[in-house]
Design brief:
By secondary structure, the protein is α/β, with parallel strands linked by helices. It is about 60% helix and about 5% strand.
Length: about 675
């Protein structure tokens, strides 16, 4: 028998909101220790599913449910604060953004207005990528997911309820299971789609709906141990999960289950409820929506202004500022607009009038706001220099060996083999010898190793096979044309030395390591020499912790000197240092192009020349930079002077390669 539910205020749910928003802010700020802070959004999804379902079920039982009334309440809750934050972003975007960034920003503004920003960001970026940190409205993807949920679920719940509680429960369980299965599949097959789009998130919202349905039928339970277990599961996930955790997926049942345990069992006087009902948690929980809205724009605009990565102190100050702004917008925007009756109540006409003004500004992003500004021409010219480098042609990003535009002669003397770092090595080789006879064998993100491919979370599962096939094509070319060929082997090797990364070695997945990289570089070198070719290893440009290319452009835009973007060699990404040290183990046996030494005389690494960027991001050369460095250091001569292996060397290399292959 139904006990009914009128949704009473639960202080512990506000406290749970605080547990959700604090880690999100800390994660986006880059604070150490909050590797799973992105899970805060998933906590919000479960809470939202619970509250929305409880409200709708309560109205359905009292036979007063109105879809128009429901959407009015959602509009009062969401639109005013969102409108304020987006409006505040526009002048900052005009001041701090470069022309291309500004265009992308106004596209996101339109997407926010239409509640499809999750779809836009799915097509544009990885949530965990460096570029995402510069998007002020990236976090609105989760609002879009919720709004899309609001469109289909309340009407569906209304239809299901007409067939009774059991039918409703069965349908919600089915939605939960189907969505969970989709997320598990997509976490491997399509990670970005999985993260941003509604079908992979419905199960989290349904988890909250199941809690509401259960309580609606049986009333509330109190179990201190289960409530405390739920809190422990959430906290453990926040600190143990990281951006390498496939998510959302079945592993998300741990934090989502933790939230469900709190919603079901953490009632008054239980330990979990007492913790979550502490006044600081309640205060942050009450302002959590506004805090969520404010933090990402503050962080993004700071990163847009700063030439280098902001300090922890600066990000801490902005975190506090986000809470202060959240209190302001909660007190003077959220609360007045939520009141439907009485003194200070705001009418729906005022809500939609105020929001309509902002919507007009948002949609104007397709017109005047996206127009050209004074000084844009110079900045656009600089930005042209930091576009991705594809080597000989944009068509050489993948399967380059099959394309005539990816070679400069019918009988090349140089094969450039590798990933995007191989592609940007091409203009360095051609910098002083534009007529060099060269062929490009590049497949982006795919290191040039015999029998080894990395696991790449940003790619579909089939990508590993595509990488292996691309390397097999390069190996086949070396077998057929190896005599006298110079083989430039270039990659940053990040996937091969990064802690926790996985690589597939001859079909078997295993943990990556520096020693494994050395072993398979040795195997690859032996393979190249066994076929009469000579390998040349490349130490990539030092990888920094900020976008060095954008830094130079920002310096010009804000009238700061370009050399302010330079850095010390000891400040580079430690993965670059580790990969460099592995390659140096071959010194004396193999010719090495040392871009680190060239870029960093006296320990200071240059990021510009003549006011133009040498980098295009935090790790790649710009085309301009590659050509300039190539001319400075005579990279072509270094490559061509590498001695071809003698016949005895070929025989020994063939023997070594065969031994290594049998051992693997």
């Amino acid at each position: 028998m139904s006990k009914g539910v009128s949704l009473k205020y639960r202080a512990e749910v506000d406290g749970l909101r605080a547990v959700a928003v604090i880690p999100v802010i800390a994660f986006h700020a880059g604070f150490p220790g909050f590797s799973g802070g992105f899970l805060g959004v998933d906590i919000f999804f479960v809470i939202s599913g619970y509250l929305i379902s409880s409200i709708v079920l309560g109205d359905l039982e009292k036979e007063r449910f109105s879809i128009i009334d429901f959407y009015e309440r959602r509009a009062r809750r969401i639109l005013p604060a969102l409108a304020l934050v987006v409006a505040a972003c526009i002048p900052l975007a005009e001041w701090l953004m470069l022309p291309g960034q500004r265009t992308d920003f106004y596209e996101s503004v339109v997407a926010v207005a239409l509640f499809v920003s999750n779809i836009l960001f799915w097509t544009e970026t990885s949530y965990f990528g460096a570029a995402s940190e510069l998007k002020p409205l990236l976090h609105t993807w989760s609002l879009a997911v919720e709004e899309q949920f609001y469109l289909f679920f309340p009407p569906l719940l209304w239809l299901l309820w007409r067939h009774g509680w059991k039918a409703t429960l069965a349908a919600v369980v089915a939605l939960f299971m189907l969505s969970l299965a989709v997320s598990q599949w997509a976490s491997v097959a399509a990670p970005s789609l999985n993260f941003f789009l509604l079908p992979s998130r419905v199960w989290e919202l349904m988890a909250g709906a199941l809690c509401a349905l259960t309580q609606h039928r049986y009333g509330s339970w109190r179990n201190g141990a289960l409530g405390l277990l739920g809190l422990m599961l959430i906290v453990a996930s926040l600190f143990l999960f990281d951006d390498s955790t496939p998510f959302p997926s079945a592993i998300g049942l741990i934090p989502v289950g933790g939230v469900a345990l709190i919603l079901l069992f953490a009632r008054e006087e239980t330990a979990a409820a007492r913790i979550l009902s502490l006044k600081p948690f309640i205060w942050i929980g009450l302002i959590s929506y506004s805090a969520y809205l404010w933090h990402q724009p503050l962080f993004a605009f700071m990163r847009l202004y700063a030439l280098k990565e902001p300090t922890m102190l600066q990000m801490g100050g902005l975190s506090i500022l986000s809470l202060l702004l959240a209190w302001f917008s909660y007190r003077f925007v959220e609360q007045p607009f939520r009141q439907r009756r009485g003194e200070g109540a705001v009418s729906m006409r005022m809500i939609f009038s105020a929001s309509g003004v902002l919507l007009a500004l948002m949609l104007a992003g397709g017109g005047a706001l996206r127009g050209e500004r004074s000084g844009d021409a110079q900045l656009l010219a600089l930005q042209e220099l930091i576009k991705p480098s594809y080597g000989l042609s944009t068509e050489c990003r993948e399967n380059a060996l099959d394309k005539p535009v990816c070679r400069t002669a019918e009988q090349p003397k140089i094969l450039v083999w590798g990933d995007s770092h191989a592609a940007h090595s091409v203009p360095a080789i051609l910098g002083d010898e534009p007529d060099a006879r060269l062929i490009q064998a590049t497949y982006y993100s795919c290191p040039p190793l015999v029998g080894v491919v990395p696991m790449n979370r940003d790619k579909p599962a089939a990508w590993a096979d595509e990488c292996a096939a691309a390397n097999a094509d390069a190996e086949d070319y070396i077998r057929r044309h190896g005599a006298g060929l110079k083989v430039v082997i270039a990659s940053p090797w990040r996937w091969n030395v990064e802690a926790g990364a996985r690589v597939r070695v001859d079909g078997t997945w295993q943990d990556s390591s520096a020693d494994l990289l050395e072993r398979h570089l040795r195997r690859t070198i032996a393979f190249v020499r066994a076929n009469g070719a000579e390998p040349i290893l490349v130490i990539s440009p030092p990888r920094v912790t900020y976008d060095a290319g954008q830094c130079v452009v920002k310096a010009r835009a804000t009238h700061r000197p370009a050399h302010a973007c330079d850095f010390r060699i000891e400040d580079v990404d430690p993965r670059w240092t580790l990969a460099r040290d592995v390659i140096e183990r071959f010194s004396g046996d193999v010719a090495i192009v040392r871009f680190g030494e060239i870029m960093c005389p006296n320990g200071t690494c240059r990021t510009s020349k003549n006011g133009k960027p040498l980098y295009r991001d935090l790790t790649h050369f710009s085309d301009y930079g590659a050509a300039e460095i190539g001319r400075e250091a005579d990279i072509y001569d270094l490559v061509m002077s590498a001695p071809s292996p003698a016949e005895a060397t070929q025989t020994a290399a063939r023997s070594d390669f065969e031994k290594d292959t049998r051992r693997e």
